[in-house]
Amino acid sequence: MATIQTGRELTVTIDSVAYSAQVAEATLVPNQTVDQYITLTDTTAVAQPVTFQLNVRAYQDWGVVGSFCDAMWTAATAGTAVAFVLGIPNAGTLSGDIIPSYPTAGGPADGAMEVSFTFEVDGGITKA
């Protein structure tokens, strides 16, 4: 029987603080470039190192205890990489360091205010 994974099981932990209620979507995206060289007698391909981005869509929660938006603002002001752990339902975790960025503030008057981030991952990813 297949196991269906839902976002209700999604947790992103940044600097040892777990954010699950605020996070609506999180995706770790690998990027890899393959350079192809063509000579007179042959072709060859060389894979460049893999880089990653962590995309997060969350609900704005400014000013509340354990605020994801406040934590991102503080981290972006400090300008240093912060650790993250992305829980994968039924499959463990992916972890690494991200370069923090400032969140947006505000949104529509008739709906939940969201914030989206695209974090560059600093270094590699560990799967546990």
Overview of this structure, please?
This protein is mainly beta and 128 residues long. The protein has a single domain, classed as Elongation Factor Tu (Ef-tu), domain 3. It has one helix at 68-78, and strands at residues 12-14, 17-19, 23-31, 34-38, 43-47, 51-59, 82-88, 92-99, 114-121, 126-127. The strands form two sheets. Strands 1, 2, 3, 6, 7, 8, 9 and 10 form an eight-stranded antiparallel β-sheet that branches. The protein has a two-stranded antiparallel sheet with strand order 4-5. It is elongated, with a radius of gyration of 18 Å. The model has no long low-confidence stretch (mean pLDDT 85).
Fraction in beta strands: over 45%
CATH class: Mainly Beta
Number of helices: 1
Q: Indicate the percent of residues in helices.
A: under 10%
Question: What is the fold-level CATH name, i.e. the topology?
Answer: Elongation Factor Tu (Ef-tu), domain 3
How would you describe the shape? elongated
Radius of gyration: 18 Å
Q: What structural category arises from helix and sheet content?
A: mainly beta
Strands, total number: 10
Q: Separation of termini? A: 24 Å
Spans where pLDDT lies below 50 across 5 or more residues: none
Secondary-structure element series: EEEEEEHEEEE
| Total domain count | 1
CATH architectural grouping: Beta Barrel
The main β sheet shows up as: 8 strands, antiparallel
Mean pLDDT: 85
What's the quick description here?
By secondary structure, the chain is mostly beta strands. It contains 1 helix and 10 strands; from the N terminus they run ββββββαββββ. A hairpin with a 2-residue loop joins β1 (12-14) and β2 (17-19).
